[in-house]
Amino acid sequence: MKFMRQVVASCVCIGSLTMGAVAYAASSAKDLVLNGDAVCTTCHDEGDNADLLAIGKTKHGTRADSRTPTCTSCHGTSLEHRDFSGSGKPPKPDVTYGAKTMTTADARNGACQSCHAKDGKHNQWEGSIHQARDVTCAACHKVHVSKDAVRDKRTQTETCFSCHKEQRAQASKPSHHPVLEGKMGCSDCHNVHGSAGPSLMKRNSVVETCYTCHMEKRGPFVHNHQPVNEDCSNCHNPHGTTAEALLKSRPPFLCNSCHTPHGPIQPTLANGTAPALTAPGWWNPSVVTQGKSCVSCHAQIHGSSNPGAAGQHLFR
Ligand code: HEC
Ligand code: HEC
Ligand code: HEC
Ligand code: HEC
Ligand code: HEC
Ligand code: HEC
Ligand code: HEC
Ligand code: HEC
Ligand code: HEC
Ligand code: HEC
Fold it and tell me: Hey, which of 153, 186, 200, 213 would you mutate to test ligand 7's pocket, going by the most ligand atoms within 8 Å of its Cβ?
């Protein structure tokens, strides 16, 4: 099969690619991978570009599905290009995607959106930061390869890091989500096609996004810690940090950015007793500067249902 095709192809087209003299000859040509692709594949086959026909192995190549595209759905009818019979290079196709393309970002995205605009996860694309900054669909998606790297968590980051250098640096800090390890992708937290939440969050807020995996932090708690309910990134940098547990800085510094540090306090516990300040684990000068610092007492930092007086609500 392949051999036969190549024979046909080499008569009709390889000649045209090298000499630019032979015109399009669809009548005798068969489609190779997409319905109606013969108008293009008479000239463009694996001899032209090793990857080009791999599109037939992707969802776009499901020929039984009438919604799937043909070459011209993405590149335009390109009549002048297709039917060129002069010498030299043919005029460009209507829509091209290469580095030197003259096609506007809107027109390139428009070709994809003619089919994808109504996909549920993509209907916030218009006005999203990537759209506004002319980041095109094809800047992330490779459609002529059998495996599109950006949609595989194990290979996705390379695409993102090519533009987002800061996140690349953060991802390899000592404390990080297992993204470089390939167990999570950027797309576990971000919907890069646009979102109603801040920073392209997958859900409507940072906390809702984090709760999808860290359910226990949602509560409900009798006593909440206000900054936790507001935004996890008040204290955590989800991309990676030098401090443990993805903390932006260690306690007491982290806590003291919002609180005035207090000195020794003798607590009154729920049962009415008051442990001596010198009792093990209670106040001593080093407790605030060492180990878990503030969190050695205020251990339920994300919220708790402990009974007790104000101030002890986030207690161990
Ligand atoms: C007669 C042969 C011929 C036919 C038929 C043909 N092309 Fe081409 N195509 C070429 C040649 C030759 C080039 C290289 C032009 C150049 O180097 O500028 C090319 C280049 C291209 C490029 C790359 C342009 C760029 O600058 O990035 C695309 C995309 C393309 N063709 C798409 C198509 C599509 C889609 C069809 C069908 C509608 C088609 N071609 C039909 C000969 C053909
Ligand atoms: C779903 C949209 C889509 C379809 C369908 C499609 N292309 Fe493409 N084409 C692209 C994009 C996007 C690029 C840019 C490279 C990439 O993303 O892989 C491209 C690149 C190309 C190039 C330039 C390759 C290079 O390395 O410079 C040629 C030639 C081409 N396509 C021809 C075709 C032909 C022939 C068909 C039909 C068999 C076709 N395309 C079908 C979207 C499409
Ligand atoms: C003519 C309609 C059409 C056009 C144009 C089109 N697509 Fe698609 N695309 C589809 C269909 C249909 C599917 C399969 C959807 C499904 O199975 O639910 C698909 C699937 C996809 C997928 C998912 C593939 C998978 O394996 O799940 C990606 C990514 C995609 N398209 C990107 C693009 C990009 C990027 C462009 C523009 C360069 C584009 N599409 C242009 C119709 C189109
Ligand atoms: C910034 C990179 C980026 C851009 C720009 C981008 N995509 Fe995607 N796309 C992705 C990633 C990552 C996924 C996988 C999402 C996941 O795993 O949840 C994806 C998934 C898809 C899918 C598969 C269905 C789905 O939602 O999971 C389609 C279809 C698709 N994109 C089409 C498009 C179209 C059309 C455009 C342009 C309007 C576009 N994409 C722009 C990165 C991008
Ligand atoms: C072609 C370059 C490019 C690629 C590839 C790219 N981005 Fe972006 N991204 C941008 C630009 C430009 C902005 C605008 C803000 C800026 O300049 O940093 C942006 C902004 C963002 C934002 C911030 C949104 C906000 O509201 O502040 C997030 C999150 C993001 N991108 C995630 C991703 C992810 C995840 C990927 C990979 C799937 C990705 N990007 C791939 C260029 C890119
Ligand atoms: C665990 C969830 C999570 C993962 C995984 C994640 N992000 Fe983020 N990202 C966030 C949150 C939350 C914010 C908002 C942080 C803030 O406002 O300080 C954000 C913000 C951003 C921003 C905007 C930064 C700015 O300064 O405005 C970019 C760009 C970004 N992320 C890119 C990426 C890339 C690229 C990846 C994959 C390597 C990734 N993110 C993985 C949660 C995540
Ligand atoms: C897709 C699931 C997922 C999402 C969404 C998610 N995480 Fe995680 N998180 C993980 C996994 C997996 C680990 C690693 C657990 C391990 O290594 O044992 C983790 C670990 C953590 C840790 C502990 C790190 C350590 O070193 O102890 C913190 C803090 C954290 N995540 C905060 C967040 C925040 C904040 C968000 C929202 C911006 C978030 N996570 C969103 C899956 C997720
Ligand atoms: C007020 C600061 C603060 C905020 C806001 C905050 N955290 Fe934390 N988080 C911490 C501290 C401090 C630790 C370390 C606790 C320890 O060392 O015992 C921690 C640890 C964690 C851990 C790892 C240990 C564990 O308890 O499972 C996860 C997961 C986590 N936080 C998720 C979240 C999520 C999700 C949010 C948002 C809903 C959030 N955090 C908001 C301060 C905060
Ligand atoms: C982003 C600012 C911010 C950070 C960082 C922060 N807090 Fe808070 N914290 C608050 C706010 C706001 C309240 C509610 C104050 C009020 O109700 O008067 C609060 C309340 C508390 C309370 C009193 C709870 C109660 O029962 O009334 C304790 C204890 C506490 N924080 C401990 C900590 C510790 C320990 C850290 C460091 C791990 C920390 N906080 C980090 C903003 C912050
Ligand atoms: C040895 C245990 C211990 C350590 C360590 C500790 N605290 Fe406390 N903290 C307490 C007790 C006990 C109370 C409650 C006092 C009371 O019952 O009125 C309290 C109360 C608070 C309150 C509430 C104050 C109020 O007026 O309601 C805040 C805020 C707070 N601590 C922040 C911190 C911060 C920030 C650190 C670290 C710099 C820290 N704590 C370290 C024991 C501790």
Answer: 213
Domain borders along the chain are 1-145, 148-248, 259-316
Q: What is the pLDDT along the chain (316 residues), one digit of tens a residue?
A: 233 333 333 333 433 343 333 344 445 689 999 999 999 999 998 888 888 999 999 999 999 999 999 999 999 999 999 999 999 999 999 999 999 999 999 999 999 999 998 888 888 999 999 999 999 999 999 999 999 999 999 999 999 999 999 999 999 999 999 999 999 999 999 999 999 999 999 999 999 999 999 999 999 998 899 999 999 999 999 999 999 999 999 999 999 999 998 888 776 766 777 777 777 667 777 777 778 888 888 889 999 887 765 555 566 5
- Rounded to 5 degrees, φ, ψ at 306 are -60, 140
CA-nearest residue, atom 30 of ligand 6: 167
CA distance 46 to 25: 18
pTM, 2 dp: 0.94
| CA 115 to centroid of ligand 3, rounded, Å | 7
Does ligand 5 come within 6 angstroms of the Cβ of 53? no
Q: Is 301 in the pocket of ligand 9 (CB under 6 A)?
A: yes
Query: Is 177 a pocket residue for ligand 6 (Cβ < 6 Å)?
Result: yes
The residue contributing the CA closest to ligand 4 atom 27 is 121
DSSP H helices, 67-193, are 71-75, 79-82, 105-116, 129-132, 137-140, 156-161, 165-171
CA of 236 to the centre of ligand 7 (A): 10
Distance, CA of 116 to CA of 68 (rounded, Å): 11
